[in-house]
Amino acid sequence: MGLFDKIKHAFVKDKEEEKQTEDTTQETLEDEKTDESTETDAAKGSETEEEFEETTESTAFPVDEQEETEKIEEAPADTQKKYEKGLSKTRKTFKDRMNELFANFRSVDEDFFEEVENTLIGADVGFDTSMRIADELREEVKIKNAKKPAAVQNTIIEKLVDLYEEEGEMEVNELNEQQNDLSIFLFVGVNGTGKTTSIGKLAHQYRQEGKKVLLAAADTFRAGAIDQLVQWGERTDVEVVRGNTGSDPASVVFDAMTRAKEEQADVLLIDTAGRLQNKVNLMNELDKIKRIIKREDPSAPHEVLLVVDATTGQNAMNQAQQFKETTDVTGLVLTKLDGTAKGGIVLAIRNELHLPVKLVGLGEGIDDLEVFDPNDFVVGLFKGLLQEE
């Protein structure tokens, strides 16, 4: 089953659940009327009560059975629900833009297709992606002879989903964890994106799995960064290897590598500086850190994770582009996705930068950093945007 088929299936399922809720509400109202009739007509009371019990048995689940059904259905969908909740602002913005698009245009003409491009660009799906979708939409509308707004909107979504699925065929979203050996993850990104917080949350998750974790505070030129990582270390009961403020970041990494091997750690998470305004110096610093890592372990670092803030939209794309050009980024950590209307940036990142999203922040809690699931993401974003044709 393709991704768009999954979205349609989820959409139909929601509609069926809405219909079932409406029917149940109507039955309840009818039952209440039956109760009132029973109270005012004593002669038919017992007969009405028997009819009411038969109706209840035939039209409503017994309470215990209904609760059991909900548990069976909801347990596998916990992560999906997180995505749906976390993407609610993005979904609303996308829906508002679509409503505005179809409110202003009564016919599907060239002006309409140009406005489709502007709408998608405004939804942060990327310039190249927007142009491609508009071009494909022109052909699809001709083939399907789609003229009604609902049919055209569904076609736009289908094209976005198909492109997203096509570009992600070879994408690996899982973290490159080493089995029975030390996994070394290097975190990069500008200050303020949630880099240190993401490291702390990931450390917590690994600790919950029973793994031995070490943190390295290699952002040595900002005392606040060291202090913040130490606080996360205390919170998650994880040791932090650090140096003095202003010391050589590479020396901290060397000490952390040595300690990790001596203590047979499973995971080493390395925090680095994020001064993009001094790009040349920063990249030289990162190169030196990576040379130290490779000298101790030629296969490492096993991930170079760029942390970007989803709320910055196109700026996040620009940061990713700059880091991609100057260092070997293997994947992205997309923070604050739940607090933004710019979640469409994930489409642009996949379609235009071809960088896999590895982790995503779907809340402020310590357990709200999730391994990115592209299927859950796209269903959570688009399911509520389909229209009944």
Question: Top keywords for this entry?
Answer:
SRP/SRP_N; globular; EC 3.6.5.4; single chain
- Radius of gyration (CA) equals 27 Å
Task: Tell me, rounded to a whole number, the average pLDDT.
Answer: 83
- What is the straight-line distance between the termini? 21 Å
Helix content: 55-70%
The DSSP helix count reads: 15
Q: Count the E strands.
A: 8
CA-based shape: globular
Widest sheet, order of strands: 3-2-4-1-5-6-7-8
Q: How big a fraction of the residues is strand?
A: 5-15%
- H-E order: HHHHHHHHEHEHEHEHEHEHEEH
Low-confidence stretches: 48-76
Oligomer: single chain
Helices and strands: which structural class? alpha/beta
Q: How is the biggest beta sheet arranged?
A: 8 strands, mixed
Overview of the molecule:
- Its main location: membrane.
- Part of the signal recognition particle protein translocation system, which is composed of SRP and FtsY.
- It is an enzyme of class 3 (hydrolase).
- 60% of the residues lie in helices and 10% in strands.
- It has an eight-stranded mixed β-sheet with strand order 3-2-4-1-5-6-7-8, sandwiched between helices.
- It is an alpha/beta fold.
- It contains 15 helices and eight strands.
- It is globular.
Q: What is the topological layout?
A:
Blueprint: H1 3-40, H2 45-59, H3 63-74, H4 78-86, H5 88-104, H6 110-122, H7 127-144, H8 149-167, E1 183-188, H9 195-208, E2 213-217, H10 223-236, E3 239-241, H11 249-262, E4 267-271, H12 279-296, E5 303-309, H13 314-326, E6 331-335, H14 345-353, E7 357-361, E8 369-371, H15 374-382
Parallel strand pairs: 1-4, 1-5, 2-3, 2-4, 5-6, 6-7
Antiparallel strand pairs: 7-8
Helix pairs in contact: 1-2, 1-15, 4-15, 6-7, 7-8, 9-10, 11-12, 13-14
